[in-house]
Amino acid sequence: MAGSLKLTPSQASDVEAASEAIYASAADQVISAQAGLGRDLLALATVFLIVVTCHLINPLLQFEVNFGRAFRNATLQPVLAVGLLICALMLISNGAWGGALWRSLARNRLRLAASVVLFAYTAIALLAIVLRFNLIGAILGLPQEGFTEPVSEDGPVALFETALTITMALEYLALAAVVVLWEPWNRMPVYTRAVRRNAPVVLVALAVLVIWEAALVVFNIQQFLLPRPSVIIERFIDTYHRGLISVGWNTFQNAFWGFVVGCGLGILTGLISARFTSFSRALLPLAIAANSVPIIAFAPIMNNWFGALNPASKIAIVAVLTYFPSMISTVKGLTSVDTLSLELMQSYAASPLEIFRKLRLPTALPFIFSALKVSTTLAMIGAIVSEYFGGSTQGLGYRIREDAALFKYPESWAAIIVASVLGILFYLLVSAVERAVMPWHVSFREE
Amino acid sequence: MIGLSAIISVRNLSKIFKGTDGQQVHALADINLDIAPGEFVSFIGPSGCGKSTLLRVIADLTDATSGTVTVNGKTPAQARKDRDYGFVFQSATLYDWRTVLKNVQLPLEIMRYPREKREQRAREMLQLVELGDFASKYPWQLSGGMQQRVSIARALAFEPQILLMDEPFGALDEMTRERMNNELLNIWRAMKNMTVLFVTHSISEAVYLSTRIVVMSPRPGRVSEIIDVDLPHPRGPETRELDDFFRLTGQVRHALREGVHG
C-alpha cells in the first residue's frame, strides 16, 4: 500500500468485498454466454431433426423425395428419432427439471404451449419411426403397412396426401415451437459478435473454394485429377440416389462400436493398471510395442478371422486402433493427482475407494476425454480404411475405392465429404458428452 | 504443561531425509514439546528449519525417524483415523469439480454424515468465514483469499480437536492477510477448546495470533526458544499498536537471529 493512502480496516474490507463481487459476476457472465452457445447448436439440431423425421413418417416424402430417400436406413432412423427426443427435452427443460421446470413453464404460457406442441410432434415421430405406428394414418383409417412402402397408384393416394398435409402442418408448428423456446431475438449481440469473430475463417474457406474452382478452369486441369468443387457438390446432391448418407451411417456404426469396445477396454485396463503397478509394468511395454505396429496392416487378417462381410472384422480394427490412446491416457490421468490433494484425503483417513471416486477419477476425466476425442478420428480412419481391403458394398471405404477405380472421382470426393461430416459429428458428440460430464473444466471457461 | 494435561506431546523426535545420492538431511533433531488443549501455537523459523515437517509428522502425513508423538494418548496414525485433525495447506487445495458448498462437504461425505446434516453444517461454516453467498460458485470464480477461507471452512466442518495450518496465508497480500488473521482468531475463540498449530514466516502474524510461539532454527531443525505471548484477548487492530506487541516481535526476531548464528 502506498504511504499516502492508508485505509482503515473496515474500508479495506469494503474494497476486498467489492472486488469479490466483481470477480464472481464476471465469471457468471462467461458461464451464461457458454450455455447460450450450446443452446443455439441444440436448437439448430432440433430443427434439422424435425425436418428429417417429417420426411421419414410419410411415404410420399420418404420414398419419392431425395431428402427422404437419403435417410432410408433401418438403424439410422430410430437413432434420429431418439436424437430428436433428447434434443426436444433438453430444449424444453433449459437446464431445470422437476418442480423448477414446471413452475417456470406455468409462469410463461407461450413457452408452455410451445413445449406441448414440440413434445407432441416428437411423440408422434417416435411412435411412427420406432414403434411403426403412424398416429395420423390410424386416425385417417389408413393401413399401417402403407407407411413402410411406396404408395401405389391404385391405393388411397388422396388420403395419403391428406396425411402428408397434416404431417407438414405439424412440422411447421413444431418448428415454430422451437423458435419460441429458442428465443434467438434475445441473442442478437452474441450472434453479431460470433459473426465478426468467425468471418475471417469463413472468408478464407470461401476464397479457397473459389481459387480451387478458378485454377482448375484456367489451367485446364483434368477432372479425374481434381474435380471442381461445384461438380463435387453437384455429385454429392446427386448421390442421394445412391444412399450415400445411409452408406456413411453403416461405416459410422462400425467406427462407433469399435470405438466403444476399444476405448471401453482401454479405460478398463487403464483403471486396473493404475491400481496395480505390477500389472501396469507388465502391460505397458506390450501395449507400447503393439501400438507401434501399423494396425491397418492387420485388416486382411481380420477379414480372414471374422469374414470380410462381417462388421466384426471392421469393428476389431477400430477397437485395436483406439485401445492404446485411451488406456495410456487413463493411466496418466489417474496417476497425475497432485500431492496436496492426496494428502488432504489422507488427513481425513479416506479409504482408497473414496480417494478413487472423489479425487482420482475426476482428475483423470479431462485426460480420458481428450483421448476419446482423438479416438473419434482414429475410429473413422480405421472404419474407412479397413473397408478398402474388402467388405460390404454398403460402406464408405468401399464406395471411395470403387468409384476411384471406375474413374468416378467426383463421386469419391462426395463420399469423402460425407466421411468428414460424420467424423466432425462424432467429435462434436463426444465433446457434448464431455461438457455434460465435466462442465467445471478449465477449457470451458474462456469465452 | 507437561504430562497428562497435554493434548500433543513430542518426545526426542528426529527426522532424517535420505537424498538420492545417499546424502542425509537432518530435518528434525531431538524435538521435545508439549501442547495443552485450546492453545494457539505458532511455529516460526527460516526455511529448512523443519517446521512444516514437524507439522506433517504430527498429522501422520510422514513418519518420524525416531522418537514419539502422542496425541490424546494415541499414536498420530490412530488420531488421524479418529479424525482428530483438520489440515489447512499453503494453497487452498480445493477440488475444481466441486462447488464451494460441495468442497466444504467433502470431509463430511467421507465421515458419513447424513445428507441434510452435511449441507446444513457446510452452510454454517461458510457463514462463519463470511462466504455464505458464494456456496454455489466454483473455486476458480473466487479470489485467492476467498479460496483459502473456503479451505478453512472445510477443515473446520467436522469440528476437529486439532487444526493444523501450514503457512495458510503465505500467498496472500498483507491487507487480506490481516483480515484473515482476525477471522481466524474469531473462529478459534468461537470453537471452544480447539487447539491450533500454525506454521508461519511472519513474525507479526505469529505474535498477533498465538498463545505461544515456538522459534525453530535450521541444520539440524530444532527448537531454539519457546516464547509465551501474554497479550490480552480479544485481540483486534489496536493490539498491533500495543507496546507489548512491539516487545514480543522484537523478542521473536532476536530469538530467530540467535537461532541462526548461535
Question: How would you sum up this structure in a few lines?
Answer:
Chain A is mainly α. Chain A has helices at 9-56, 59-62, 66-70, 76-93, 98-107, 109-130, 135-140, 157-182, 188-218, 229-238, 244-275, 277-291, 299-306, 311-335, 339-347, 352-388, 396-405, 409-437. In chain A, 31% of the residues are buried.
What does this structure look like?
The complex is a heterodimer of chains A (447) and B (262). Chain A has 447 residues and is mainly α. Chain A contains 18 helices and no strands. Chain A folds into 2 domains: 20-182; 236-444, Orthogonal Bundle (MetI-like fold), CATH 1.10.3720. Chain A has helices at residues 9-56, 59-62, 66-70, 76-93, 98-107, 109-130, 135-140, 157-182, 188-218, 229-238, 244-275, 277-291, 299-306, 311-335, 339-347, 352-388, 396-405, 409-437. The model of chain A has no long low-confidence stretch (mean pLDDT 83). With 262 residues, chain B is of the alpha/beta class. Chain B is built from 8 helices and 9 strands. Chain B has a 6-stranded mixed beta sheet, sandwiched between helices. A 3-stranded antiparallel beta sheet of chain B has the order 2-1-4, with helices on one face. In chain B, helix 6 (174-190) links the parallel strand 6 (162-166) and strand 7 (195-200). The longest helix of chain B is centred in the C-terminal third of the chain and has 19 residues, at 243-261. Chain B is globular, with a radius of gyration of 18 Å.
